[in-house]
Amino acid sequence: QKTIAKIATCLELRSAALQSTQSQDEFKLEDLKKLEPILKNILTYNKEFPFDVQPVPLRKILAPGEEEHLEFEEDDEEGGAGAGSPDPFPPRVPGTLLPRLPSEPGMTLLTINIEKIGLKDAGQCIDPYITVSVKDLNGIDLTPVQDTPVALRKEDTYVHFNVDIEIQKHIERLTKGAAIFFEFKHYKPKKKFTSTKCFAFMEMDEIKPGAIVIELYKKPTDFKRKKLQLLTKKPLYLHLHQTLHKE
């Protein structure tokens, strides 16, 4: 388990190096290749690990809907203190964002900038990120699911992301009734797993250039949009900015 956790750290370092704008690679491809024999002999490997890295904490990430069957403390959405002073997050783990699709004549691509999310306990969220998916009316994925990197910072009652999501299908090719979902997730140390705190979604008639704020709903995520419950009566929203690209 320790070796696998260290390999996970190396993969994160390599991913960070690939996404970095700096010229020097902190973790090179040649370094990554040194892990191959370890992976091939993972059950019998007993030599010293080739890199001095700390293992990634073993975290359980639950499948959609799984967490609702666990016992957990219900968040008191109507009370509680604010988040307090600005508090930078620890080193960020890169997400699984995908590049923009090639343009096609007469077809429209959508970039969504996730600016920030308003939460009463924003300052207490650990390693928060947002999972973005595009679903049809039956909750079936129409595009690959993407995770943002861990948030940039938390400030007052906001968690700030400022990250672009490239929707992986031309708007004209999305089925009628499709929606784009945003699931806000954070790590719970006591439970040792990553949990969905709330979700929001945007329907096709809301796709238009410019800023938009959308309401937050209680978990579990209802991809079929049948039993929606607002997270809170307070005016807290997910703040987005849309850019349309058309040839």
List keywords for this structure.
six-stranded antiparallel β-sheet, mainly beta, globular, 247 residues, 11% helix, Immunoglobulin-like, 3 helices
**What's the level 1 CATH class of the domain at 108-246?**
Mainly Beta
N-to-C series of helices and strands? HHHEEEEEEEEEEEE
What is the helix content?
10-25%
Average pLDDT rating: 82
Low-confidence stretches: 68-94
Kindly state the number of beta strands. Answer: 12
| Shape descriptor | globular
- CATH architecture descriptor of the domain at 108-246: Sandwich
Instruction: Please work out how many helical segments DSSP would assign.
Output: 3
Describe the largest sheet.
Answer: 6 strands, mixed
CATH superfamily of the domain at 108-246: C2 domain
CATH topology of the domain at 108-246: Immunoglobulin-like
- Overall SS class: mainly beta
Head-to-tail CA distance between termini: 50 Å
What percent of residues are in strands?
25-35%
